[in-house]
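A reminder from the course coordinator: this example appears on the midterm review sheet, so study it carefully.

Given structure:
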């Protein structure tokens, strides 16, 4: 664990405790040794804290990096919450090979280890730890909320919840071609060849690499990532095999923490009906919010509002007056 003075220090100030301050936000760049690799992230804390604070662990969507949501920190710190943004293994500033491989099961296991590391930090209230995520990050948050009783609250925004359903997004012929490519990639990697990659988001150009998401709203929503050095607009094709394995509803009945589920009423990227059905299966305290529109559409149009609302919701669950 360390304070990093060499990166992102423009317009920053430093206090005698050795921590960085920027725009009235105190942060520390920290790292966690987890299962043979090192995960790296940034922990933001509210100003003028006098004791351990509740914390939110927040992740964005597929292919994203933690630096892309650092700007959300004031929504959390402004209501008295700490917030940790960190990169999954193989992504951004975190270690791990192969790079750009999405593995929701492994990401969830890593998140549980990160919860352990955070709970041992003196500035963190281990009894009030929440998980929050968008899309893939929401799926991982739901999985961990169903497997780790230390999660005190969970927020999931437009999460995909069924790998079987995700397969249905492809026409039968296209799915067969995709699976053929996945199996060919497995064979090639066994021979020592580099992993095959897709472009995560953008326009599909003749003769160009395959693109996973071409929605104009998605391109606009994620545009700011292009200026982040740790971001690569690539996805290992083996990621799709890992995504097809995941069935988050299997853990729905095990989610005991308060749940806020935010959906897009016409979502086909993360099929909304699957998420609604999972919500019905959760036995505990829960709240469902639906915004009209598509997956990336509501994120593009309503993102700051949704983040602020969910931060206040978590603060309220953790008994902070600012959440009222």
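Designed residues:
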């Amino acid at each position: 664990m360390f304070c990093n003075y060499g990166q992102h220090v423009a317009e920053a100030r430093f206090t005698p405790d050795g921590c960085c301050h920027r725009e009235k936000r105190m942060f520390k760049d920290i790292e966690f040794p987890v299962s043979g690799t090192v995960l790296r992230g940034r922990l933001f804390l509210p100003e003028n804290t006098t004791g351990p604070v509740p914390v939110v662990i927040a992740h964005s969507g597929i292919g994203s990096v933690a630096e892309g949501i650092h700007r959300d920190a004031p929504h959390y710190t402004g209501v008295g919450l700490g917030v940790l943004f960190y990169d999954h293994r193989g992504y951004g500033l975190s270690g791990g090979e192969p790079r750009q491989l999405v593995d929701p099961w492994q990401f969830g296991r890593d998140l549980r280890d990160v919860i352990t590391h955070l709970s041992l930090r003196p500035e963190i209230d281990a009894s009030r730890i929440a998980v929050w995520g968008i899309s893939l990050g929401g799926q991982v948050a739901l999985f961990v909320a169903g497997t780790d009783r230390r999660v005190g609250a969970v927020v999931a925004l437009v999460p995909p919840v069924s790998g079987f359903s995700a397969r249905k997004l492809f026409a039968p012929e296209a799915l067969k071609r995709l699976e053929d490519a996945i199996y060919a990639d497995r064979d090639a990697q066994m021979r020592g060849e580099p992993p095959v990659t897709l472009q995560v988001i953008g326009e599909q150009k003749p003769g160009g690499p395959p693109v996973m998401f071409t929605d104009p709203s998605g391109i606009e929503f994620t545009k700011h990532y292009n200026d982040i050095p740790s971001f690569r607009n690539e996805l290992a094709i083996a990621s799709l095999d890992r995504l097809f394995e995941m069935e988050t509803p299997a853990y729905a009945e095990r989610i005991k923490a308060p749940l806020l589920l935010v959906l897009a009423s016409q979502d086909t990227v993360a099929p909304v009906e699957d998420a609604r059905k999972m919500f019905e299966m959760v036995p505990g305290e829960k709240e469902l919010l639906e915004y009209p529109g598509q997956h990336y559409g509501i994120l593009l149009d309503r993102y700051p509002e949704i983040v602020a609302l969910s931060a206040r919701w978590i603060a309220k669950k953790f008994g902070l007056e600012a959440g009222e």
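The chain is about 30% helix and 25% strand. Residues 1-23 have pLDDT under 50 and may be disordered.
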